[in-house]
Amino acid sequence: MTEKKVFFQSGELKIEGLLNNLDGDRAMLVTHPHPLYGGSMDNNVVDSVVNAYCKKGYSTLRFNFRGVGQSQGSHEQGTGEQEDVKGALSYLSSLGKSSIDLAGYSFGAWVNAQGLDDFANADRVIMISPPVGFIDFSFLGYSPGIKLVISGSEDDIAPPAMIREMLPSWNPDANLEIIKGADHFYGGKLRDLVDIIQNFLRGSQ
Fold this sequence. Notes:
Mean pLDDT: 97
Strand order of the largest sheet: 1-2-4-3-5-6-7-8
Low-confidence stretches: none
Helix content: 25-40%
Strand content: 15-25%
Distance between the termini: 21 Å
Oligomer: single chain
CATH class: Alpha Beta
Shape: globular
């Protein structure tokens, strides 16, 4: 896999990303965990998602939210960050990608969820450890694009019991996968995460 550094626009801001551009119209965009807790596009869970999609022949784009790494601007509590996602989706569309999966881990999943109504060019949504035990998700209603939700059995930031309760109102047809023994950071469980994503992609081809 060869990722190259790219920059794209989010309003007036230049946003730093890593792109692996393969032939075809399929792509995946993944958003990273909370910037104020050290989250960036170099996160190991983000890395695993990129690898899982790359092995299935998808182009991939990850990026640093505003104020992180070489991305301009500053942290905006998830509001400006939605503009960053929109800019990344537009960038992929400009490269000829018309079938785009939107994945997000933790804070990234929350940012993605908030902007779903505006992310028309995201076909399918994958939420990894949506932090329902940490941030309010009551805003999120029925969203047919949500296809897969993943968490760990020991994740106290994205507690499986809370997700199970909320998922029917998000999309009753979405798959919920709980990784036994995994906490919010997936230490020692990244292989399981990759397997779940690859199985999902295999089933959707």
